[in-house]
Automatic annotation (TrEMBL):
SUPFAM superfamilies tied to this protein: NAD(P)-binding Rossmann-fold domains
InterPro entries: NAD(P)-bd_dom_sf (IPR036291), SDR_fam (IPR002347), VLCFA-Steroid_DH (IPR051019)
UniProt cross-references to Pfam families, sorted A to Z: adh_short
A GO term, aspect molecular function: oxidoreductase activity
Protein name: Very-long-chain 3-oxoacyl-CoA reductase
CDD domains in UniProt: 17beta-HSD1_like_SDR_c
UniProt keyword annotations, A-Z: NADP, Oxidoreductase
Top-level taxon in the UniProt lineage: Eukaryota
One GO term describing the cellular component: endoplasmic reticulum
Record family assignment: Belongs to the short-chain dehydrogenases/reductases (SDR) family.
Length: 324
């Protein structure tokens, strides 16, 4: 064997080892947390054993309501927290009648200021809360450049931080002390795929969701030894009011389909897309970044989002014309 073929043999051996190492390090855990664990083994986290009550924010619609229904189905009593009292009462009755569990409601606006947390603390003071779902979140009406967004409504940028970040932080601070004292509890935080992939033109929204991922990750490290499970859930599109998608599909499932899937990942993944097609979508974007470069992936997403912005602005112009 000549020298060049020997070098070739060593290099190909090295390449095979690197690929093999990457498969063991990244691909196998991905398969376990997204397919084998949730779909073949099933979550072993017994939510009903965490405590008598579950608290869910933003729970009159969409993903929050779907979490409320699934937790009631498991026998937990519920505290639903949203803005509109009428909607809260209607949803409380619907879920209470269907699953035969007690449902209480608290009407607060998570953009209203710090005082709301004192009210929530007081109204839940004697409840044994074992599950907290920090679901409430708001987003842009449509993708927009940061400066145009600020010019149109500067207060909105305060509101989005209050609803998406302060709510998660303060609700956790209210309910985790008791969980820690009892050495059991589950905190589920709704992030978004927007928090883990490039997301220009939704920059403030996606940054609030990146906060949720980081906060959840570090919180889990701090309190794992205290028996607390913290999960950050990162959906892609789900057919809700927020996404404005009416008809569910494989890549934009109904909130019920999404939440059933997300709950099956509990105990397998601290950070999860929560639903296999969304996990695949994240994977494709991360592979594009790795193979073709981060800038290529950013430009690809930007082009796509600019298309969404153009269509949304045209729709808005048509609606305004109709009104005149
Ligand atoms: N849908 C998606 O495609 C998607 C994708 C990724 C991540 N997410 C995340 O998933 C979570 C839920 O989204 P969703 O699509 O289910 O939203 P949604 O359908 O718009 O429902 C939002 C819920 O939050 C409540 N809410 C809104 N603003 C509030 C405020 N200021 N104070 C109190 N309650 C408020 C609403 O109730 P009232 O109107 O009665 O107050 C409603 O119950 C959010 O954190 C979102 O960022 C959603």
């Amino acid at each position: 064997m000549d020298e060049s073929s020997q070098v070739l043999k060593i290099l190909s051996g090295l390449a095979i080892s690197i690929v093999g190492f990457q498969i063991c390090r990244k691909v196998l855990p991905w398969i376990y947390t997204n397919i084998v664990g949730p779909q073949l083994i099933g979550s072993s986290v017994n939510l009903a054993k965490m405590g008598e009550w579950a608290v869910i924010t933003g729970s009159t619609d969409g993903i929050g309501k779907a979490y409320a229904r699934e937790l009631a189905r498991k026998g937990l009593k519920l505290v639903l927290i949203s803005r509109s009292l009428d909607k809260l009462k209607a949803v409380a009755k619907e879920i209470g009648d269907e699953f035969g569990v007690e449902v209480r409601v608290i009407d607060v606006d998570f953009t209203a200021g710090f005082e709301i947390y004192e009210r929530i603390r007081k109204e839940t003071a004697c409840l044994d809360v074992g599950v907290l779902v920090n679901n409430v979140g708001i987003s842009y009406n449509y993708p927009e450049y940061f400066l145009d967004c600020y010019k149109a409504d500067p207060k909105f940028l305060c509101d989005i931080v209050a609803a998406n970040i302060h709510s998660v932080t303060h609700m956790t601070a209210i309910f985790m002390p008791e969980m820690v004292a009892r050495r059991k509890g589950v905190v589920i935080n709704l992030s978004s795929t927007a928090g883990v992939i490039p997301n220009p033109l939704l920059s403030v929204y996606s940054s609030t969701k990146a906060f949720v991922n980081k906060f959840s990750d570090d919180l889990q490290t701090e309190y794992k030894a205290h028996g607390i499970l913290v999960q950050s859930v990162q959906p892609g599109f789900v057919a809700t009011n927020m996404s404005k998608i009416r008809k569910p599909s494989v890549f934009a499932p109904s909130p019920e389909t999404y939440v059933k899937s997300a709950l099956s990942t509990l105990g397998f993944a601290g950070q999860t897309a929560g639903y296999l097609p969304h996990a695949l979508l994240q994977l494709v974007i991360h592979f594009t970044e790795a193979l073709l470069g981060a800038q290529f992936a950013r430009n690809l997403v930007l082009k796509n989002i600019l298309g969404t912005r153009k269509r949304a602005r045209e729709r808005q112009a048509r609606e305004q014309q109709k009104k005149q």
